[in-house]
Design a protein that fits this description.
The chain is an alpha+beta fold and 121 residues long. The chain has helices spanning 7-19, 63-74, 88-94, and strands at 3-5, 24-29, 31-36, 51-52, 79-83, 99-104, 109-114. A four-stranded antiparallel sheet has the order 4-3-2-5. A hairpin with a 1-residue loop joins strand 2 (24-29) and strand 3 (31-36). The model has no long low-confidence stretch (mean pLDDT 93).
């Protein structure tokens, strides 16, 4: 099992991290998402650019659905994992049309670039 992040939503977050010379952070708390470590904020205090995993966005997905998907893939604990947006799979996604799939074991996160789906999900 894995979760997918649409490249079209992730690229602005990666670009913000590159411009701000900071990390991109994979977060699991109220959903599963990537954001720039130092990103622009909205008037309500929330980060402006956030890329949610498909099915793990609490603003659009039912609580029981996103919570169960996040728990099944990443366990019950909240976390934040920091990555260099200029390296590896992030550099590839930043300069292509690819999406990213993320999967987890008890000790490792695996990230891979994948072709976007034709239906956009």
């Amino acid at each position: 099992m894995s979760v997918r992040f649409k490249g079209t939503e992730l690229r602005p977050v990666l670009l913000e991290a590159v411009v701000n010379q900071c990390h991109v952070v994979l977060v699991k708390d109220q959903g599963v998402y990537f954001l720039a470590e130092r990103g622009e904020h909205r008037p309500d205090g929330r980060q402006k650019l956030i890329a949610y995993a498909i099915g793990c966005n609490p603003d659009v997905d039912a609580f029981d659905d996103w919570w169960e998907l996040a728990r099944a893939e990443f366990g019950g604990d909240d976390f934040g994992e920091f990555f260099d947006p200029r390296k590896g799979v992030f550099a590839l996604v930043l300069h292509s049309a690819n999406d990213i799939e993320v999967s987890a074991t008890a000790t490792h996160l695996s990230l891979g670039a994948v072709a976007p789906t034709s239906n956009g999900s």
